[in-house]
Specification:
The complex is a heterodimer of chains A (335) and B (301).
Chain A (H helix, E strand, L loop, with lengths): L5 H13 L13 H27 L6 H18 L4 H23 L4 H19 L5 H4 L5 E2 L13 H24 L2 H11 L1 H6 L4 H27 L1 E2 L6 H14 L4 H16 L1 H11 L8 H15 L3 H17 L1
Antiparallel strand pairs in A: 1-2
Helix pairs in contact in A: 2-7, 2-10, 2-11, 2-12, 3-4, 3-5, 3-10, 4-10, 8-10, 11-12, 11-14, 11-15, 12-14
Chain B lengths: L1 H31 L6 H17 L4 H24 L7 H23 L23 H23 L1 H11 L1 H6 L4 H27 L7 H14 L4 H29 L9 H15 L14
Helix pairs in contact in B: 1-5, 1-8, 1-9, 1-10, 2-3, 2-4, 2-8, 3-8, 5-6, 5-8, 6-8, 9-10, 9-11
Classes of the chains: A mainly alpha (335), B mainly alpha (301).
């Protein structure tokens, strides 16, 4: 997978930081609601990034990353609710808790490969809402009702709205995490991770401690997704068990597949994509009903499902990989 | 004591359902090495079909047969159209396609029939059926129907030429092809049969869990647990595993109930059924991946 062009990355980053400041000029275009939407996209991107570290770069399939997202969200929510911890301090806590949970889940996962690992993580994703409702945890998690939180307040009297602040908060978190992931993948450990994905036996004989790398990668991946969960807890200011169902994990999978398995930039694209489709499902449904004249409530998941299958046929490397392949072909045609 | 018997009986009834779904999973696994994550949603879809036919005025058993036939055809079509071309694709692609199927089945069912929970009738007469106080009429009926279906499948695979050809295609595709078995079609047929068996399970369980697009989530998880307990490469094992897991599930809840009564401490109950299944799945996978009756896979290095 090619590296994302550096210049383009900087331009995009500068744009991302400047756009909210245009609010006074174009109040309708850069509205608070849109910024909030973009914040949820950023959160989704981080979650997909976490999944990609595990599935894309280390070759361990996970259909249950919604579980780690839930652990992150609940860690943040419980800390804020019971210990009055400030929202920004919950991120490292969620990361640590999720790393431990992910690492522990990674231990039995060591013995599983391919379909079996998918099966175990699928089972995890199905069971998560019930585990969160467990009676003994009710005092902490608030049971079925969940926990209601406050949105992050704007600090230091900055002249920003709540949503603008949230946007910057998410953006900075993502930039840091993205940078860390890019550096990690570009290091010895990152290459070891990918070696395990491509040739587990060869990696083992080269002296790579495959078990250690696999479990630690599981932990790191869970930590990333957990941070996304913690961010979402403060962004939505609410957590409830039934929002962490199997379909959450399916959304991450969509992000992974659409963006590109084994591509960091692809994870961001994938995250943006699934939030976009999720939010425009209603418009899509209206389009099907009014313009195509079909009496059919098109839901986002129908689109997701069809896309998953079609992409596996046309672009198994995701959109980023597909575009790259296309560009290379065009170039070879010209040259 | 009577409560204990009741728990076992209802466990057997649930187990019959798990056995069916587990068998469907194993049939696909044995022949193609794929785990069908969409099995539950496909069964749910077939159940809706039978519900729709019934609201159009068909009798239960007629709707049942039509829905099962429909599932068979759908299964064959899915295999031929979607999975066949991906036969040599990496595991992730296959898993993703199954998840895609799951999402499509679920959302399309929701779009056509809405997410409202619906009542589903039971075909078995209320009185003079079942044993009073131990097993209800519907539960007994479910066990009987499943046993009949399983028996038919056994006879089909054991004593008919087509069944033999299908087994050959699953066990050794190359050799089967050499002796003139059309392996591709056998696999598609296997898919169709699996979908049909799943549909039977869905229609039987809908009276118990009610009809809604997410009704099969928990059942699929228990079916996975059953298939793994019995050994995912062994159809007979899957059936036995289904009954074991069904009884076990109820026993765990019953024991939790008794403990709570005796000591007042709540440990486990009906609310933790999926967690129990998760624990079974992970324990079997890590401790004894071959299950009770499965073939031990040895990897050559």
């Amino acid at each position: 997978m090619p590296a994302f062009p550096k210049k383009l990355l900087w331009v995009l980053l500068a744009l991302a930081f400047l756009v909210p400041l245009l609010h006074p000029l174009f109040p309708d275009v850069v509205s608070d609601y849109r910024l909030f939407l973009v914040s949820t996209m950023i959160i989704a991107a981080i979650a997909v990034l976490g999944l990609n570290l595990l599935t894309g770069f280390n070759g361990q399939i996970s259909l249950g990353h919604g579980a780690f997202y839930a652990v992150g969200a609940y860690t943040a929510a419980v800390l804020m609710d019971h210990l009055n911890m400030p929202y920004w301090a919950t991120l490292p806590c969620a990361a640590v808790v999720c790393f431990i949970v992910g690492y522990l889940f990674g231990l039995p996962a060591l013995k599983l490969e391919g379909h079996y690992l998918a099966l175990a993580t699928f089972a995890l994703a199905l069971a998560v809402p019930q585990i969160l409702k467990y009676k003994w945890l009710e005092g902490l998690t608030g049971g079925v009702q969940g926990i209601v939180l406050n949105k992050p307040e704007v600090p230091f009297g900055l002249p920003l709205s709540e949503d603008q602040w949230l946007y910057y908060y998410c953006l900075v978190t993502m930039v840091i995490l993205y940078w860390a992931a890019a550096n990690m993948l570009n290091s010895r450990s990152g290459r070891a991770m990918m070696a395990i994905r491509d040739q587990p036996l060869a990696a083992d004989t080269m002296g790579i401690d495959t078990s250690l790398y696999k479990t630690v990668t599981f932990g790191i991946s869970a930590a990333y997704t957990g941070i996304a969960g913690a961010l979402s807890a403060s962004a939505i200011a609410f957590v409830a068990p039934d929002s962490f169902n199997i379909f959450l994990s399916i959304k991450f999978l969509i992000g992974l597949v659409v963006g590109g398995v084994g591509s960091l930039a692809g994870s961001v694209i994938g995250g943006i994509f699934y939030v976009l489709v999720d939010n425009s499902a209603q418009a899509l449904s209206m389009f099907v009903k009014n313009d195509l004249g079909l009496q059919f409530d098109l839901s986002a998941y129908t689109v997701f499902g069809i896309l998953l299958i079609v992409l596996m046929y046309l672009m198994p490397m995701g959109i980023v990989g597909g575009v790259y392949l296309l560009m290379r072909r065009l170039r070879s045609l010209r040259g | 004591m009577e409560q204990f018997l009741q728990q076992i009986a209802s466990g057997l009834a649930n187990g019959a359902i798990y056995a069916c779904v587990a068998l469907a999973l194993v049939m696909i696994y044995v022949s193609t090495d794929h785990i069908n994550f969409a099995q539950g949603e496909m069964a749910m879809f077939s159940t809706y079909i039978s519900w729709q036919l019934m609201t159009w005025g068909l009798s239960f058993w007629f709707a049942f047969i039509l829905a099962v036939v429909f599932s068979f055809v759908l299964g064959v079509i899915i295999e031929r159209a979607i999975l066949r071309p991906l036969h040599n694709a990496p595991v992730l692609s296959i898993v993703v396609v199954f998840i895609g199927l799951l999402a499509i089945c679920n959302s399309v069912a929701g779009a056509i029939w809405s997410y409202l929970i619906k009542e589903f009738p039971s075909p078995f007469p209320k009185s003079s059926f079942g044993i009073a106080g131990v097993i209800g009429p519907h539960q007994l009926g479910v066990v009987m129907v499943t046993l009949i279906v399983l028996g038919l499948l056994f006879v089909f695979f054991r004593y008919t030429p087509l069944g033999l050809a299908m087994r050959a295609a699953a066990q050794n595709p190359q050799m089967a092809r050499l002796v003139g078995v059309r392996v591709d079609w056998m696999l598609a047929l296997g898919w169709g049969l699996a979908a049909a068996v799943g549909a039977v399970a869905g229609i039987m369980v809908a009276h118990i869990v009610y009809l809604d697009p997410n009704m099969m989530g928990g059942i699929l998880l228990y079916a996975f647990a059953s298939a793994l307990v019995g050994g995912i490469s062994n159809p007979g094992g899957a059936v036995v595993g289904g009954f074991i897991v069904g009884v076990l599930e109820n026993m765990v809840a019953y024991a939790g109930n008794q403990i709570e009564k005796a000591t007042g401490i709540y440990i486990i109950g009906n609310g933790e059924k999926l967690t129990v299944a998760l624990i079974i799945v992970i324990t079997v996978l890590t401790v004894k991946p071959a299950g009770l009756f499965g073939r031990v896979v040895v990897k050559r290095v």
